[in-house]
Design goal:
- The chain has four helices and eleven strands.
- By secondary structure, the protein is an alpha+beta fold.
- It has a single domain (about 40-180), classed as Beta Barrel (OB fold (Dihydrolipoamide Acetyltransferase, E2P)), CATH 2.40.50.180.
- The chain is elongated and about 100 Å long.
- The mean pLDDT is about 90.
Length: about 180
C-alpha cells in the first residue's frame, strides 16, 4: 500500500517540480552584451583626405581602364571607355573638385556610380576597401577646413583613428556642374 508521500502527482505538479529543479541547477546567464550598430561604406582617398561612400552608391570598383579622349569637354572628363560592352565616361574626381590626384597611376581606381540615368566612372587616388564604423561615431558637423567645392557632397564625418568624410556619389551625379561636361 502506498503512503501519502508516494501519491501520484498531477501533470501540472510534475511540470512545476521539473521547473523548480531546473532553476536550482541552472548556470547563470551570460552577461548581457551591448549591441552596437554599424554603418558600412567604401573608403577612398582623394588628395590627403579620407572619404567613405555609402555602400549602395558604389556599383563597382575598377582599375583605371584604357579610355578614348573626347574633344570639346572639360579637363576633368578624361574620356570614355568600353567596360563589358557598356560605355563608361571616365571622370577625374580630384580635378572636378579642384583637388588634383596625387597618387601614382598604379594606385588609382575608378568608383563606378550607376544612379538613375547617370553611369560614370570616378577616378580617385586610392580605394581603401570596405570600411565599418560604429554608428554612434557619426557627426553631421562638417570640418571647418572643408573645401567649398566638396561641401555639397559631404553629409558628415565618421571618426575612427582618422576622420572619414561621408561622400555621396549620388549627390555628385545629380549636381548641375557634374552634368555640364561640354566646354
Amino acid at each position: 500500500m502506498a503512503n501519502k508521500q508516494d501519491k501520484a502527482l498531477t501533470p501540472f505538479e510534475l511540470l512545476q517540480d521539473m521547473a523548480a529543479r531546473s532553476h536550482r541547477h541552472a548556470l547563470g546567464l551570460p552577461s548581457q552584451v551591448e549591441l552596437k550598430t554599424y554603418w558600412s561604406g567604401i573608403g577612398f582617398r582623394l588628395g590627403g583626405q579620407r572619404y567613405v561612400a555609402p555602400l549602395g552608391e558604389v556599383a563597382e570598383i575598377l582599375t583605371v581602364p584604357g579610355y578614348t579622349q573626347l574633344p570639346g569637354v572639360k579637363s576633368w572628363v578624361k574620356g570614355i571607355s568600353n567596360v563589358r560592352g557598356r560605355l563608361l565616361p571616365i571622370m577625374d574626381l580630384g580635378d572636378f573638385l579642384g583637388n588634383p590626384l596625387s597618387a601614382r597611376r598604379a594606385q588609382r581606381r575608378v568608383l563606378v556610380v550607376d544612379h538613375e540615368e547617370i553611369f560614370s566612372g570616378l577616378v580617385v587616388d586610392e580605394v581603401m576597401g570596405m570600411q565599418h564604423f560604429v554608428s554612434e561615431t557619426f557627426s553631421d558637423q562638417l570640418p571647418d577646413d572643408i573645401a567649398s567645392s566638396i561641401k555639397p557632397f559631404v553629409s558628415g564625418v565618421y571618426s575612427r583613428e582618422h576622420e572619414w568624410q561621408v561622400f555621396s556619389l549620388f549627390s555628385l551625379a545629380q549636381h548641375p556642374d557634374f552634368m555640364r561636361v561640354a566646354v
